[in-house]
Write a structure and sequence with these properties.
The protein is an alpha+beta fold. The protein is built from seven helices and nine strands. Strand 3 and strand 4 form a beta hairpin. The longest helix has 19 residues. The termini are far apart.
Length: 201
């Protein structure tokens, strides 16, 4: 006996629901990437930032984290490294030790900045490295830059510290968004150059 039209409709709706969750974010409060949810927008110091893109960082056969980038709606992705508000969220898909953040970040900073640039902000780099803590699967770091205030590092919403100055942010965000990022595909997805429809740009 065939299925009733209403049953067929329910099956089709169930199949399409994940895609709808991503595509119709103008009517939803969250977006999904590989089973991880991110808010469609965040407000920091009165500044509303919309999600621009999201992706997953993979290393060998492992998913390391899902990341999302937030920018003000009127800021072009081309200007992401300029002195503009921005926030990145990282949802960890595996455990990480605090020292791994330093070990992985330093080579990428060397690839994306000159020796002089790094020398000028070395104390600030050392300061943020000290802030990092071990993370468990499912925990989140956020990195938020606000002009005139600096770059704030938080773990699961708890602020660990702030690094003052645009000079630091201009270099540090290059780890993910610079000429030689941790992963080219992730950079493209964060900037929404991969054509994802949930982004505000």
């Amino acid at each position: 006996m065939g299925k009733a039209p209403t049953d067929i409709y329910k099956i089709v709706l169930y199949i399409l629901m994940p895609a709808m969750l991503i595509m119709n974010t103008g009517e939803l409060s969250a977006v999904q990437i590989n089973g991880v949810y991110f808010h469609d927008s965040v407000t920091v110091s009165g500044n509303v930032m919309k999600i621009r893109g999201a992706g997953v960082l993979k290393w060998l056969f492992f998913n390391v984290y899902a990341a999302a980038l937030y920018l003000p709606p009127d800021v072009s992705s081309r200007d992401v490294l300029e002195d503009v508000p921005k926030k990145m969220e990282f949802h960890y898909l595996s455990d990480m030790k605090a020292e791994q953040f330093t070990e992985s970040g330093e080579p990428l900073l060397l690839k994306n900045a000159s020796a002089d640039e790094l020398a000028q902000i070395r104390e600030k780099i050392d300061a943020i490295n000290i802030m990092y803590r071990d993370v468990k699967k499912g925990e989140r770091y956020s990195l938020t830059y606000m002009p005139g205030k600096g770059t704030e590092l938080a773990l699961n919403g708890q602020v660990l510290g702030r690094i003052e100055g645009y000079d630091f942010a201009a270099v540090y965000y290059r780890i993910w968004l610079g000429e030689n990022p941790v992963d080219d595909d992730l950079k493209e997805m964060l900037l929404n150059n991969a054509g994802r429809t949930f982004s505000s740009k």
